[in-house]
Predict the structure.
Amino acid sequence: MKIIMLGAPGAGKGTQAKLLADHYGLPHISTGDIFRYNLKMGTELGKKAKTYMDAGALVPDELTVDLVLDRLAKEDCQSGYILDGFPRTMNQARKLSEALGKDGEIDFAVNIEVPDDAIIERMAGRRVCPSCGASYHIVNIPPKKEGICDRCGAALIQRDDDREETVKKRLTVYHDQTQPLIDYYKGLGREIDIDGTRTMEQVFAQITEKLGD
Ligand code: AMP
């Protein structure tokens, strides 16, 4: 099963993608995580991506599309995957469709809907583990010990791109560049709408109900 996650930054795509990857036994491929990993490792790609990420802008398609298509060609992706954060532009969506071919198109585009004001509130409380990638929210999904990752014990941080001004910029980018993908996948008959304002468990239940076991 090939699944892509749509929705504004902070809608809960990453959290649900991880849960779905565990549930269906599929690899979770997050372009944001790939860029952050490269940034941490100080690679050329990481350095190039950082300027865009810090500004709340999208990394150019030239740096993104081949990276993802190469990853999807790997052995572990042959029975499916959960693609989180890609495609994010119409050009990326078309390139993905071209690479998959008519008979290999993704099965579901899961569109997690959350209003902008709720997103801004959520992002302000989001904390991530720089070491293992786990994500938390100071109110909704607090770690057992404040500021410390439950999984690996590292100190949690707020991502630079979760700051309020950057979040607002990212929402504008989302509405301009990513929202048109909803109609694209609707046209292909693959899009499903999910109410993302519920709890993590309820959102997960809505998705699996539509995707089936
Ligand atoms: P995310 O963790 O998915 O919110 O991604 C963090 C940042 O990485 C985004 O704000 C973009 O700057 C960059 N990024 C992630 N995925 C893509 C993509 N498909 N196209 C362009 N930029 C991306």
